[in-house]
Amino acid sequence: MKSKIEMNIILPIYKHSFSNNLLKRIIKNKKMYFFDTGIITYLLKYSSSQILMNDTINGAILENYVINEIRMTYHNNLLEELFYYYRDTEKNEIDLIIDYDNQLHPIEIKKTTIPHDRMTNSFKLLDKSTRKRGNGCLLCMKDKIVPVDKENTIVPIWMI
């Protein structure tokens, strides 16, 4: 039997899928994230960071890390976490949608140092929403902040 401390460390957080329809938002599939990416890499038996960096799962682990960092910032500032993700049947996806000040702010998380503006194309899907789309960002491994266009910005992950 696992101790209470271990259970608290590996308890997942959930992010709801986004839909304009509140009922669909509640019943649709949730996406699961773990609090500690170190435990994930331990359970997957990675013996070094180089092995992790070359594995296909490293993007998912980076996404998990980024969402947890953003979540902790909200928690530490006593802000309500209204986080969603978007995925449709055509495989369009937005990694994180933050519902803040009655606007939807899309975020894409990529493990690249050379992002391109096409990585924010899926953000336009939120224009069909009844809510206004706010500014979005592409979080990646780039070393500085760079505007993509008037609505989106490339932000280095180390800045979160």
Which band does the percent of strand residues land in?
25-35%
Which overall shape is indicated by the principal axes computed on the Cα atoms?
Answer: globular
- The tally of beta strands, per DSSP, is 9
End-to-end gap: 36 Å
Number of helices: 5
Measured as a percent range, the helix fraction is 25-40%
**Main sheet record:** 9 strands, mixed
Specify Rg, calculated over alpha carbons.
Answer: 16 Å
Uncertain stretches of 5 or more adjacent residues: 1-14
Structural class: alpha/beta
Average the pLDDT over all residues and give the rounded result.
Answer: 79
What's the order of the H and E elements? HEHEHHHEEEEEEE
Describe this structure in a few short sentences.
With 160 residues, the chain is of the alpha/beta class.
Task: Characterise the protein shown here.
The protein has helices at 4-10, 22-27, 37-43, 49-53, 58-76; strands at 12-17, 30-34, 83-87, 93-100, 103-109, 132-133, 136-140, 146-147, 152-156. It is built from 5 helices and 9 strands. With 160 residues, it is α/β, with parallel strands linked by helices. Strand 8 and strand 9 (152-156) form a beta hairpin. The chain is globular. Strands 1, 2, 3, 4, 5, 6, 7, 8 and 9 form a 9-stranded mixed sheet that branches.
Secondary structure blueprint with pairings:
Blueprint: H1 4-10, E1 12-17, H2 22-27, E2 30-34, H3 37-43, H4 49-53, H5 58-76, E3 83-87, E4 93-100, E5 103-109, E6 132-133, E7 136-140, E8 146-147, E9 152-156
Parallel strand pairs: 1-3, 5-6, 5-7, 7-9
Antiparallel strand pairs: 1-2, 3-4, 4-5, 8-9
